[in-house]
Amino acid sequence: MSRPTIRTDHVTEIVPFTALDGHPLTLVHVTGREAPVRGPVMLVHGAGVRAEIFRPPTSRTLVDVLLDEGFDVWMLNWRASIDLEPVPWTLDEVAAYDHPAAVHKVLKATGAQSLKAVVHCQGSTSFTISALAGLLPEVDTIVSNAVSLHTVIPSWSRFKIQTVAPLIARLTPYISPAWGDRSEGWLPWVMKTFVRLTHRECDNLVCRMVSFTYGSGFPALWSHRNLDAATHDWVRGEFAEVPMTFFAQMADCVTSGHLVPVSRLPGLPESYVAQAPKTDARFAFLAGEENLCFLPESQRRSFEFFNRHRAGKDTLHTVPGYGHLDMLLGKNAARDVFPLIVSELTG
């Protein structure tokens, strides 16, 4: 069950529901002091974290900003959430089963005819699959951070995901950055020891494990200069298991340069790039200029793909001084990033 962040200025409700294949999920409905005057916006987290990644202990979070703008805020815990029991999953399953069910649940709960979405990392890739397959006709605006349809990563990350990850998958069904603080068994100990020796960028071993797991760089998902001390400590509890099934699919995607399916599921095409997107939703592609998880080229290629099919509808923004997750967690993100997100949601 979800463990919501305790904030006296937020009213938080956990709404259980099921994906279209029966998998249990939750939505975190957040309201503020004033009733919403705009429609619903759904926030979708990445792999191996949870909905609360949008509510770090900064003075002003994205949730705060959206509430102040009058939005009805819903944060999704899809099957990758660490607030749910860990299961193996693929992007195809999430696209076919989780996101359509979540959109329908929010619309039924609010009575709205449409909604907007802010989607991050693997929440963004899977949501993009759902949208381009025509499974989310009620979504009219999608703000995508870091990666969406195309997958361009640093050379060291490519080596890890194509060579190291298959070896690890023979030994464990999951890998977890949380092993930095708590682990049992020889494999977590070996990996933690390796990271302790090779990543010396800070004293937070979970932060260092995150960098080994998800990208290249020291650190990989953010710049330390962008995180305040409270947030840097808080991330220790915000990362856990990620299934090797995901890394296997992402390795295929990296080889192809774009998302590829690994299973045939109802409603999903055989190729995600062979036809025009079946969505009227406007996309705003965001990329941190210093992203060492998915290079900014990823979002540029996705923007160009969409622009070839519907010129002038979508937008691309590269944000200097930011990387991957500090676009959401940064101590100055409310000044540097969130106004851009709001302008795309309200424009």
Structural commentary:
The chain is of the alpha/beta class. The chain folds into two domains: 225 residues, Alpha/Beta hydrolase fold, catalytic domain (Rossmann fold), CATH 3.40.50.1820; 89 residues, no CATH class. Helix content is 36%, strand content 16%. It has twelve helices and ten strands. The strands form two sheets. An eight-stranded mixed β-sheet has the order 1-2-4-3-5-6-9-10, with helices on both faces. A two-stranded antiparallel sheet has the order 7-8. Helix 2 packs across helix 3 and helix 4 packs antiparallel against helix 8. The longest helix has 20 residues. The protein is globular.
Low-confidence stretches: none
CATH class of the largest domain reads Alpha Beta
Helix content: 25-40%
Question: Biggest sheet, open or closed, and with what strands and sense?
Answer: 8 strands, mixed
Spatial gap, N to C terminus: 35 Å
GO molecular function: oxidoreductase activity
Organism: Sinosporangium siamense
Family: Belongs to the GMC oxidoreductase family.
Keywords: FAD, Flavoprotein, Oxidoreductase
